[in-house]
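Incident log, structure service

09:12 report received: a user says their structure output differs between two submissions of the same chain.
09:20 pulled the input from the user's history:
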Amino acid sequence: MAISRITLAATAAVALAAAGTGTALAADATSSAAHATQECQPGTLKAATTQLGTEQAGMNHAGTFLKLTNTGNVTCTLSGYAGLALEGSGHSALKTHTEHGDTYFATDPGRHDVTLQAGDSAYADLVWTHTGAGTAAAHYLQISPTGSNAHSTVTFKQEVDNAKLSLTAWSDTPPAA
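09:34 re-ran on a clean worker, output below:
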């Protein structure tokens, strides 16, 4: 009889300990989910073009970097490629063709998550040709950081062959060759 009570007590203790561990694991999982990084929202992102101290020009190719800064107060994540559209004078829409991948000046890092703390920036390489073939006289560039309809418009006075742009994915460092 005493052995049965000891066995029963030991079994109950093991079950209780296992239940407690399961609760602790569940609490850890819930805590981790609460700290998961949210997707960057267009209203907290500022887009711009920048040379970053390097000139991208050669063989009728020209380029610049897109710089996207998290102006919000929380860490967020984005991935993939920016949406782009050229505008002419008076902000008239120009039919724009964008190719994703390697550019003349940089290797595409490919689609991957980029985490931006408040104040951090992500970069993409933007390249076009200017030989005079089917030239689109761009005055502005719409940059949609997440590919949504929300976008920033920046000055972009460039002659762009056939309104065709080449673009790398967002990266936490400027894409390089």
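09:41 both user submissions now match this output. Likely a transient worker issue. Closing.
09:42 reviewer note: Helices lie at 2-34. The longest helix spans residues 2-34.
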